[in-house]
Amino acid sequence: MATREWNPLDFDIGEEEDEEGTPSPSSISPPLQYFDRDRHVAFLEMMYNLMPHHYQSQEINRLTLAFFTISGLHLLRALDRVDKDRVADWVLSFQAHPRSRAELKIGQFYGFHGSRTSQFPPDENGVSARNAGHLASTYCALAILKTVGFNLLTIDKESILISLRNLQQPDGSFMPVDVGAETDLRFVYCAAAICFMLEDWSGMDREKAKEYILKCQSYDGGFGLMPGLESHGGGTYCAVASLRLMGYIEDDLLSKTVTSSIINVPLLLDWCMQRQAIDGGFQGRANKPSDTCYAFWIGAVLRILGGYKFIDKIALHRFLLTCQSEFGGFSKYPRDLPDIYHAYYGYTAFSLLEEPGLNPLCAELGMTDLTAIDCIGH
């Protein structure tokens, strides 16, 4: 049984070994000189109607792929291409349900499965030994439901929240499943986003989670995924967005007259600003190549802090266009083939840049602020 699913933060937060070399050149046509919304809509419509065979090995993460697709269409103001009721019914079919309230105390997480392959059928007695609910899949499921206008207060949120506390560790971190998985800031963020979307913080001990996050801030101002690890763009986003969702830091900190904060804001701002490279793009760590998705991970942190105005927006816009594919979508590096992950975070990056024709972004949740009803600070 797979105990660890791929999640929205996996591609770059955990791929240090894959970023050592220089991106290989490709024979892709020269980049377009403008944001081609129609091509991007067509790209996402393809993903919505038929999963390309290259993604079939990620079937266990189907909810995550669906989140990128449906939330991407919403960012592009093309949600009318989606059958909202059908999508909501499909997503709800992935929720794990306990047979009784007593089962909520046995340690398993009753959130959402990532796909049908992680929904284990019951035995001959009707008993499911494992439910494989996953934090990242639950974040994606709730985000999709919110996107299509489903009322989250009508779902079985009690089972989600009570069993969510089973995943929080004594140090305040979270595991994504109840056994055999790592703990780090990705899953603290997922837990915070879940509680925020469900408008109920009974699913986590916020104070413990806060203390864990603060231990992850490094000497240079950024945040590692765990205490003592190298500062990383994805980990930094998870830390800052979680603290904001939990109400521990204010929006637009840099404009406040009060200079005190539970995090070292000047060092953090300096670290973030240093991540914009000479080519205009953002890197996830020092001495790494620029990568499309960090225009969101770092850009969103700066947006929350109130420092987005300091970046070179023209240079970033130029870099992102070199990653825009003639087929629609965005690639990780300039002139590579596109993928749905970098496509989505390309759209969020252009939303932060206030590209015409895109919906505005709720930086804390990584989705449109039209979706994130009552999104903090907006």
UniProtKB/TrEMBL annotation:
<comment type="similarity">
    <text>Belongs to the protein prenyltransferase subunit beta family.</text>
</comment>
<keyword id="KW-0677">Repeat</keyword>
<keyword id="KW-0637">Prenyltransferase</keyword>
<dbReference type="GO" id="GO:0004662">
    <property type="term" value="F:CAAX-protein geranylgeranyltransferase activity"/>
</dbReference>
<dbReference type="Pfam" id="PF00432">
    <property type="entry name" value="Prenyltrans"/>
</dbReference>
<keyword id="KW-0808">Transferase</keyword>
<feature type="region of interest" description="Disordered">
    <location>
        <begin position="1"/>
        <end position="33"/>
    </location>
</feature>
<feature type="compositionally biased region" description="Acidic residues">
    <location>
        <begin position="12"/>
        <end position="21"/>
    </location>
</feature>
<keyword id="KW-0460">Magnesium</keyword>
<dbReference type="InterPro" id="IPR001330">
    <property type="entry name" value="Prenyltrans"/>
</dbReference>
<keyword id="KW-0862">Zinc</keyword>
<feature type="domain" description="Prenyltransferase alpha-alpha toroid">
    <location>
        <begin position="35"/>
        <end position="362"/>
    </location>
</feature>
<dbReference type="InterPro" id="IPR008930">
    <property type="entry name" value="Terpenoid_cyclase/PrenylTrfase"/>
</dbReference>
<dbReference type="GO" id="GO:0046872">
    <property type="term" value="F:metal ion binding"/>
</dbReference>
<keyword id="KW-0479">Metal-binding</keyword>
<dbReference type="InterPro" id="IPR045089">
    <property type="entry name" value="PGGT1B-like"/>
</dbReference>
<protein>
    <recommendedName>
        <fullName>Geranylgeranyl transferase type-1 subunit beta</fullName>
        <ecNumber>2.5.1.59</ecNumber>
    </recommendedName>
</protein>
<dbReference type="InterPro" id="IPR041960">
    <property type="entry name" value="GGTase_I_beta"/>
</dbReference>
<dbReference type="GO" id="GO:0005953">
    <property type="term" value="C:CAAX-protein geranylgeranyltransferase complex"/>
</dbReference>
